[in-house]
Structure formats: structure tokens, C-alpha cells
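Student: Hello, beginner here. Can you help me understand the protein record under this note? Any guidance would be welcome.
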Amino acid sequence: QEQLVEAGGGLVQTGDSLKLDCVASGLRFSVYAMGWFRQAPGTERELRAAINWRGGTTYYADSVKGRFTISRDNAKIAIYMQMNSLKPEDTAVYYCAADIDGLGYLSTRYDYWGQGTQVTVSS
């Protein structure tokens, strides 16, 4: 069974940092592009960062550029998102997802999803 498991969320203060991680199993991880999505209550699931299968190409939403960094370690079958200078607006559930078709921007492109990890940033 293909599975993605996220961890690393928590409750932090404005300006703090978190590092999210996502470990994959049951799939040939190295051939998948990976993305981090967020979903706040009442909103659609939106892409925040993505990385191609080799790790050489990344994408960031405007709202996180300069603050968040996505990376992957294919040997560890994991992706990460370093989140710095966190703001209350970042509060959401964060999901990792895998896309066999390459780096994409729409949630409907992605083939596998994790269960999500909650990030809460206090004022």
C-alpha cells in the first residue's frame, strides 16, 4: 500500500520555525515529484511548495517565498519543508503529496496524499 506520513507540525509563536517531514512507503519515491499543500478551514487545498523528482527544481507560492524551503532526500525516501518566520496566516493543516506526472500545481494532479499535520501560529 502506498503511504505518506507527515510529522513536525505544532503550536508556535509568530516568528518561530518548524520543520515538516514526510516519509513515503510502498512507492518508487525517487520518480515522483512531491508537493506540500495547505488547507485552512473553509478554504481549498493549495500548493505552497513543490520539488521535482531529482530535487533540482522547486516551486514556491508567493506567500512563502523567502521563508519556506522544500527539500528531499531520496535515500531516506523523505521530503521536508523548513518553515521560518511563521505568521498566523500560515495556520493550516499541511499535507504532502506525490505526483507521478512531474511537478504540478493543482491538487487534482497528485496521486497520493498524507494524512496531514497541523501547524498553528499564535499572535
Summary: DSSP finds no helices and eleven strands in the chain. The two ends are 40 Å apart (CA to CA). The first strand starts at residue 3 and ends at 7.
